[in-house]
Amino acid sequence: MAVGIFDSGLGGLTVLDEVARSLPELPLVYYADHAHNPYGVRDADDIFDLTVKGTGRLFDAGCDLVILACNTASAAALRRMQESWVPRDKRVLGVFVPMIEALTERQWGDNSPPREVEVKHVALFATPATVRSRAFQRELAFRAIGVDVEAQACGGVVDAIEDGDLELAEALVRSHVEALKRKMPDPQAAVLGCTHYPLMLDIFQQALGADVMVYSQPKLVAASLCDYLQRHSKMYGSGKQSMFLTTGNAARVSDQATRFLRRKIEFVAA
Ligand code: DGL
Q1: How far does residue 116's CA lie from ligand 1's centre (Å)?
Q2: What are the residues facing 148 on neighbouring strands?
Q3: Helix, coil or strand: residue 158
Q4: Distance from Cα 169 to the centre of ligand 1, integer Å
Q5: CB of 39 closer than 6 A to ligand 1?
Q6: Which atom of ligand 1 is nearest to the CA of 196?
Q7: Who has the most CB within 10 Å: 70, 73, 76, 159?
Q8: pTM given for the model
Q9: Is residue 260 classed as helix, strand or coil in its secondary structure?
């Protein structure tokens, strides 16, 4: 009964951690594509091919349900995967929808027509590929009308976090927030549209100001997964064991992940 979690690197661990907290008995198989990250600077075909490969590996590990805990893959590849690749008895879900449902005050799976919502000015922080895809705006338009979105491509932040250089990551976050504020001086809400960014949540909140509501994915995704599994209990796969897989250097990635989650994490070669 394992569920797969995919990311280009360590960012998806922010989602894994919350899922593990909510569903402690559920084995989780994590796949990190360190050999090819960051995805945020790649083109859509490339991201599609890499995401298909990683997801296939998670299916092979006994996961029938895979969460793309990577906004870049969710934005650039998920729809194409669902339309052309995912086998009938498997599911691949992204991380955008739970966050947009929270932002637009919807219950999970409420597919009623778009309507006016409380929030009118939203700042989106994401990787260059996610911003370029406009997937966030597309998903939002299915659910809400009259919401103005200003997107900031946060070049360099994922690399700095993966390298463990949190000082650089902090400086970059501050400068990306400044750049956003020049385009939208008073956002009401900010969306952290990259699973690496929750590690910088306090810096985003400080730079944006206390009155900006910051939406971060890990808790929202974990809650929506619990709800999904209650409704689709046969999507628990046959896998029995939690595992951390990487396409990169397993020893190095294990050290970084252990620092990242502040508990011992051992990656093995994917
Ligand atoms: N954590 C991925 C995301 O949510 C990072 C993408 C990257 O590798 O650039 O977008």
Answers
A1: 30
A2: 121
A3: helix
A4: 14
A5: yes
A6: 1
A7: 70
A8: 0.94
A9: helix
Tens-place pLDDT, residues 45-101: 999 999 999 999 999 999 999 999 999 999 999 999 999 999 999 999 999 899 999
Q: Do domains 3-94+218-269 and 97-216 have the same CATH topology?
A: yes
Residue 184 CB neighbours (<10 A): 17
63, 154, 194, 226: which one is catalytic?
A: 194
Tell me, which fold does domain 3-94+218-269 have in CATH?
Answer: Rossmann fold (3.40.50)
Domain extents for the chain? Answer: 3-94+218-269, 97-216
Single out the residue of 12, 78, 1 nearest to residue 244, CA to CA. Answer: 12
Task: Assess contact for 92 and 3: CB atoms under 8 A.
Answer: no
Decide if 154 is catalytic: no
**Choice from 10, 14, 15, 37 to test ligand 1 binding pocket (greatest atom count within 8 A of CB):** 37
Query: Which is it for the CA torsion 90, 95, 96, 100, positive or negative?
Result: positive
Q: What is the average per-residue pLDDT within 115-128?
A: 96
Quick: pLDDT tens for 13-27: 999 999 999 999 999
Atom 8, ligand 1: which residue's CA is nearest? Answer: 38
Ligand 1 center to 130 CA (angstroms): 9
Q: What CATH number is given for 97-216 in this structure?
A: 3.40.50.1860
Residue 196 in contact with ligand 1 by CB distance below 6 A: yes
DSSP reduced 3-state for 133: helix
What pLDDT, in 10s, does the model give residues 154-168? 999 999 999 999 999
| Euclidean distance between CA atoms 202 and 17, whole angstroms | 18
Buried b (16+ CB within 10 A) or exposed e, 103-116: bbebeeeeeeeeee
